[in-house]
Amino acid sequence: MIFRQITHDDLGCASYLIGDEDAGVACVVDPKLDIDEYLRLARYFGVQITDVLETHNHADHVSGHGRLAAATGATIHVHRLAAPDYEHEPFDDGFELAVGQVRIRALHTPGHRPEHTAFLLFDNRRDPDRPWAALTGDTLFVGDVARPDLAVDKDEGARGIFQSLQTKLLNLPPDVEVWPGHLGGSMCGGPGMDMKISSTIGYERAENPSLAITDEDAFVDDALAKLGPQPPNFEAIVAINRGPLHDASVDGRPLTPRQVQVMHEDGALLVDVRTDLQFDEAHIPGAVCITALRAGFGTKLAWLADREKDIVLIGRDDEDARAAIDLAQAVGITRIGGYLAGGMTSWREERLPVDRIDRVTTAQLRELYQTAGAPQILDVREQAEWDAGHIPGSRHRPYHDLTALPDTIDPTRPVAVICGSGQRAATGASLVQRGGVAHVTHIVDGGVPQWGRQGWPIQTPEDPAAAAA
Asked: Which of 210, 241, 272 is the last residue of a domain?
């Protein structure tokens, strides 16, 4: 038997290659857009990919089912409630697909989406009547459960997930392995998602906090309380995944520095994909910092990009920019105007103007905080993080909502941008500078949690009068 988990680390997505080496056949579950790894593994094992299974119409990433079907001739299977516009074989609850001696059984688990389906794996060479694994898709994760608000009313979705968990998945034997559709960092789950790649039904039943809630109303309240903001392009991604099959790829064209300048003047978004350190030291004026060298590039880009305007990518070199183009396509961002040929080096060689952003540690911010000329502090974390505790006197606006400066920020005074670790603050600082603040500081090497661990003042709703001691 062949069983491989393939991840898209930037988005926290997991897909699976399942096959029978003796029979020479395999299928792919929830393929990512870049299909090279599936094709490589199929050649390595000497199998043909004959089928593609989708757990649901994905809202966070573009599926590779069109590319796989074009490359292999595979048949695409999805629950009939998905109702896609592409050629496919619809299935219902209980459907089974034989892949050699491996059997894959559909277990309809609505909630995250109405069509959502988990898949139970059986091996005829072991116990043919006992599943050994469940591909739980976007219902049950390691340490958490799926968010309920990307297709239906959030209350209805949460109740659907509760029923799917309590009446179906949790009735499986405790030793059944859990292989989820997402790992920690995905927008499809909550803050409890683990980076572990798998678990078991028994372990999740004992240790997953969401599964300990056996009252449906209490489960719904808990699920809705943990919801983060809805990403702005999830409906567009669903439309792509439900639409006609496509196997085309976006190839950005190389641009000279002058072309980049002209496109920026015409409204293109300049996205610098280098590290935040490189960006802070020197960047093109007006560019936004979203490093492609850490997880979450695609998610951040999807928040900030205008789908009706061009995006120009700036990397350390051409390879950086081209890699970022692939990550952009995975979240349905395809209006790529091009990339700066030669990377930032070509811009510097022409002695074109650059901007810089100061870098200050949390400890250094503490020293500034106690002076008369302290900067304005802008916290760019999510609302739930802010509510859990923030620096007294700081302002708040999540980084993805910084299309304009908050009214509480005076652009003539210095602004220090902080988050939970320094990564979102990098993007936030670039947006604040783009918004017209001349003196911007990026808080690095930690953030508000580190500030609190040092025993410095933290304000919460329960303690609104926290003093700047």
From this structure: 241
> Residue 444 pLDDT more than 70?
yes
Average pLDDT over residues 88-95: 98
Q: Identity (one letter) of the amino acid at 331?
A: V
Residue 120 bridge partners (DSSP): 105, 134
Q: Classify residue 26: in a domain, yes or no.
A: yes
Q: Where are the extended beta strands (E) located within 173-263?
A: 177-180, 199-200, 254-255
Look at residues 326, 331, 340 and name the one whose alpha carbon lies nearest to residue 268: 340
Rounded to an integer, what distance in angstroms lies between the CA atom of residue 266 and that of residue 313?
A: 15
Mean pLDDT, the chain, integer: 94
The yes-or-no verdict on residue 145 having pLDDT over 90 is yes
Residue 251 pLDDT level (bands cut at 50, 70, 90): confident
Average the pLDDT over 69-92 and give the result: 97
Per-residue b or e along 194-219, where b marks 16 or more CB atoms closer than 10 Å to that residue's CB? beeebbbbebbbeebebbebeeeeeb
DSSP E strand stretches across 9-129: 13-20, 25-29, 48-53, 75-79, 89-91, 96-99, 102-108, 117-123
CA pair distance 275, 289, nearest whole angstrom: 8
For residues 237 and 60, is the Cβ–Cβ distance under 8 A? yes
pLDDT reading at 340 higher than 60: yes
Task: Please report whether residue 203 resides in a domain.
Answer: yes
The Cα–Cα gap between 230 and 192 comes to 17
Per-residue confidence band for 370, with pLDDT thresholds at 50, 70 and 90: confident
Q: Of 241, 272, 289, which one is at a domain's C-terminal end? A: 241
Q: What is the pLDDT of residues 169-189, one digit of tens each?
A: 999 999 999 999 999 867 766
Q: Is the model's pLDDT at 241 over the cut of 50? A: yes
Between β-strands 415-418 and 376-379, what pairing exists: parallel, antiparallel or unpaired?
parallel
Contacts of 300 (CB under 8 A, 6+ apart): 290, 399, 400, 427
Q: Are residues 329 and 372 in the same domain?
A: no
Length of the chain: 469
**What was the pLDDT predicted at 189?**
66
Report the alpha-carbon distance of residue 47 to residue 36 in Å, rounded. 15
Coil, strand or helix: which one is 29?
strand
Residue 460 belongs to some domain of the structure: no
Task: Give the full edge-to-edge strand order of the sheet including 75-79.
Answer: 2-8, 13-20, 25-29, 48-53, 75-79, 89-91
Give, as one character, the DSSP assignment of residue 390: B
From CA 11, how far away is CA 330, in angstroms rounded?
9
Q: Among 298, 297, 447, which residue's Cα sits nearest to residue 361? A: 447
Contact 56, 113 (CB under 8 A): yes
Tell me the CA end-to-end span of the chain in Å, nearest whole number: 63
User: According to the model, what pLDDT value does residue 465 have?
Assistant: 58
